């Protein structure tokens, strides 16, 4: 476990940089994590995905897979890859402060 500061808040992270405590997440922390991962501005389309992932995790205890994300969020898989390059489910989960989805490498 390591720590990093995002938006002026010291946060505990796992070995891959995911928040250890999803309750610490705020939209400002999400914006800072996104910027640190190559997404300088989060658009409305980003936020649709991030809120969907976070709400799904908080209600079920699991993050949606890329397939579920594309089917249920209203954002097609092709667009997910444009919004969150190099693994949309994994990167979106990191930005919205939830654990890495099962099945992500």
Description:
Helices cover 47% and strands 10% of the residues. With 105 residues, the protein is mostly helical. The protein has one domain (2-95): DsrC protein, C-terminal domain (Arc Repressor Mutant, subunit A, Orthogonal Bundle), CATH 1.10.10.370. It has a two-stranded antiparallel sheet with strand order 1-2. The protein is globular, with a radius of gyration of 13 Å.
- The CATH C-level name is Mainly Alpha
Order of helices and strands: EEHHHHH
Estimated radius of gyration = 13 Å
Distance between the termini: 19 Å
Average pLDDT, all residues: 93
Secondary-structure content class: mainly alpha
Compute the number of strand runs: 2
CATH architecture, please? Orthogonal Bundle
Q: Could you give me the name of the CATH homologous superfamily?
A: DsrC protein, C-terminal domain
Spatial order of strands in the largest sheet: 1-2
* Quaternary organisation: single chain
| Largest beta-sheet characterization | 2 strands, antiparallel
State which percent range the strand residues make up.
Answer: 5-15%
CATH topology: Arc Repressor Mutant, subunit A
How many separate domains?
1
Number of helices: 5
Weakly predicted, low-confidence segments: none
